[in-house]
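Extended Data, panel c. Modelled sequence:
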Amino acid sequence: MSHTAHIRSHRKPRRSSSKLALRAGVAGGVLSTIAVAGSAGPANAEPVTETIEMPALTFDSPELAGAVALSAEATQQAALDLDLQTQENAAAAKAAKAAKKAKAEAERKAEAERKAEEAARTAVEERSSRSSERTTLSAGASQSVSNASGSAATVVAFLKAQLGDAYVMGATGPNSWDCSSLVQAAFRQVGIDLPRVSQDQSLAGTQVSLDNLQVGDILYWGGAGSAYHTGVYIGDGKYLDAANPSKGVVIQELSGYPASGAVRVL
């Protein structure tokens, strides 16, 4: 009669195939030993029933637990490092974008300042050029002015002081004029109050022939009483007027744009 070993059941943890093979080998060896011992005993010996408790192989060993803990710690550290690197990359990208924007803004401000300085320099140069032009024109017509005396000279001097000013319809000075406002302002310097518009100025004073002009005579274009433009004769076949928006206040040759008539108020 063979001997059997009764093995109590234990909890069944998850085992690897190598550990299951090891347990099976151990159990087989023990059972073989028991069988041999039983067969060698007396024939009349009582059956032996023996309970053998096999050692349970688990993952609860300190070495394995330590290895698992180290692995978990390493995984957590790697996750933290990756998160930190992501945050650093985002911060670097944000800083680069801010720096690029600041650079663009600085360049825009610098360009605006450069244009403002250039505009200011141009304005100064234009004022200087206008002043020089007035001086040159005044010198070129000095002989004509010297031939005029008293009130006529005062009128012409005022007109020449406005050379280079802008022509603006309806403007009355001090830096922009239309044709009739400039004539009116010039004669006001000598106490003569002329009408405001060209039509009325062409009727002021005494009508004179264009062949008998004197410095200070008022020239008009169009019919007397319906004139559309006025200027003042300054001698040597020239007149001064607020011509148009493209020319402004200028001295022109009467032969280039002959007047329709003239009146004398001085």
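Residues 16-43, 137-148 have pLDDT under 50 and may be disordered. This feature is highlighted in the accompanying rendering.
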